[in-house]
Amino acid sequence: MVLGLPDATLRPFVDRYVGYRERADVPLLRRESAGVFVVLIMGWGAPLDVTDPRSAERGVTDVDSFVAGTFDSWCTTRTVGVGEGVELLLAPLTARRLLGLPLSELTNRAVGVGQLPGRWLERLRDRLAEAPGWPERFALLDRVLAARLAASPPVDPRLDWAWRWLVDSGGRVSVGVLADELGWSRRHLASRFRQEVGLPPKMAARLLRFQQAHAASAQAGATGRAVDWAAVAASCGYYDQSHLIRDFHQFAGATPAALLASR
Q1: Domain end position, chosen among 86, 118, 151
Q2: Does the pLDDT at position 263 exceed 70?
Q3: Where would you find the membrane-spanning parts of this chain (predicted)?
Q4: Distance between CA 60 and CA 219 in Å, rounded?
Q5: Which bin fits 172, alpha (ψ -120 to 50), beta or left (φ > 0)?
Q6: Is the domain of 133 the same as that of 186?
Q7: Segment 110-136, tens digit of pLDDT
Q8: Where are the alpha helices (DSSP H) in the chain?
Q9: Are 241 and 229 in contact (CB under 8 A)?
Q10: Are 251 and 207 within 8 A, CB to CB?
Q11: Which of 166, 152, 161, 33 has its CA nearest to residue 96?
Q12: Residue 40 in contact with residue 175, Cβ under 8 Å?
């Protein structure tokens, strides 16, 4: 794995680039947790399958590059061979600007990059594959992503403000408070979130709390000590431990303890 830091002008939008090269001599199956983010994989090695167990139509098969929109449940990936590529995790409103389409069109879906408008990601993937090394690939990403953002209209500042407050609160601010501060009805706020973020604000808030709990449990488990799940639940804004377990079941497909033991 090779980590790349985007140009300073891009860091408000893109946290990092993750370059990878991985060999799997036998089929490698992974369970991927849900999240209120967009996954962009641009690869040029062994193809993979992305499967949502709820519906085969939501996944994609035999692709090396794909975009996965915001998901409200876990999915699986399967590959065999040597995979190489770059992974980006994008905040929804950044992805909306880069991709040039409302994220409602990608909710709970993974699609090959060739299916997206303009096929610019397909061309970018080819250029990344031809680049001599990771520094050149990361520099190419800087140029292309900066140009895409410069050419795209900004999102509605009111929606951007609501999203940032939701993130900064760790999913704790209520939908009613957000709507009141904006002067919108709850229904209008939910409609705008579904269209641009891909999920309603209440689900986005649950996923933000889950992501925080997922990271906290991994950090606590890394110490080798027993994890106090009730404390994790309280620190991440859950009403109680049972609500934490419910979200882990829905978003990761396992209890917190089982997920931690599988690492």
Answers
A1: 151
A2: no
A3: none
A4: 32
A5: alpha
A6: no
A7: 999 998 988 999 999 999 999 999 999
A8: 92-99, 120-130, 134-151, 157-168, 175-182, 186-196, 201-221, 229-235, 241-252, 256-261
A9: yes
A10: yes
A11: 152
A12: no
